[in-house]
Specification:
This is Intracellular protease/amidase. GO terms for molecular function: glyoxalase III activity; peptidase activity. With 234 residues, the chain is α/β, with parallel strands linked by helices. The strands form 3 sheets. Strands 5-4-1-6-7-11-10 form a 7-stranded mixed β-sheet, sandwiched between helices. Strands 2-3 form a two-stranded antiparallel ribbon. A two-stranded parallel ribbon has the order 8-9.
């Protein structure tokens, strides 16, 4: 059986440049759709967060506008409720070992920019995944978690030169948050040496596969990146 570890942010807010706390969490679609696809494939999925704190879902992602329709918003809320027991008892990131898993997957939302971007334990998991050639999937704002993936023996970012995508600056501008952010995902990835690409139009699905690294640009990429991982692993 294929074993998947989904690492979720435990943040409830994102601190903006002026110190304002912007309410956030995990983006529902980016967790629920990959979780569905992985479990429908017969894979076993575990969930982990920093300190084992139950994740919070961004309320916007559960609204009609954020989910894409009232029907999808209702469906997402129902699916989260059905997974209540799983979500309330996540593993602690510092207590998991990458060798126990075939796939390491990070959903987005602004939450990872608050906690996973500076979480050394999560960063080490990613380093271990890269060094062991474990499948690594990362969505939307979750490439923020990649920023913490530094090789402790050399200090180097282990993903330098790799092809990837993530939430685009133009998309953050359309969210009216780019000029209020301390930093932006696209900008930081490029600064660190990633070979970044994005869809021609904001919020269009776009995935990049570079070896065992699978990245999706935005919520619309959630299904495509998860389905590609399943197709390649089967």
């Amino acid at each position: 059986m294929t074993n998947v570890l989904m690492v979720l942010s435990a943040a409830t807010y994102w601190t903006l440049a002026d110190g304002t706390r912007h309410p956030t969490g995990v983006w529902a679609e980016e967790f629920l759709e990959p979780y569905r696809i992985f479990t429908e494939a017969g894979w076993k999925v575990d969930i982990a967060t920093p300190a084992g704190v139950a994740p919070t879902f961004d309320t916007v992602s559960l609204s009609e506008s954020g989910a894409g329709s009232a029907e999808r918003a209702t469906d997402f809320s129902s699916r989260i409720t059905a997974l209540d027991a799983v979500l309330k008892n996540p593993k602690k990131v510092d207590a998991v070992t990458i060798g126990d898993y075939d796939v390491l997957f990070y959903p987005g939302g602004h939450g990872p920019m608050e906690d996973l971007a500076v979480d050394a334990d999560s960063g080490q998991l990613i380093v271990d995944a890269v060094k062991s050639n474990t499948t690594l999937g990362v969505l939307c704002h979750a490439p923020a978690a990649l920023l913490a993936a530094n090789d402790t023996s050399t200090g180097d970012w282990v993903l330098k030169g790799r092809r990837m995508t993530g939430f685009a600056n133009s998309e953050e501008e359309l969210n009216h948050l780019a000029d209020r952010a301390k930093w932006l995902v696209e900008t930081r990835l490029v600064e660190l040496g990633a070979e970044y690409s994005k869809a021609p139009e904001p919020f269009a699905s776009h995935i990049v596969v570079d070896g065992q690294l699978y990245t999706g640009q935005n919520p619309a990429s959630s299904v495509a990146v998860a389905e590609r991982i399943v197709a390649d692993k089967n």
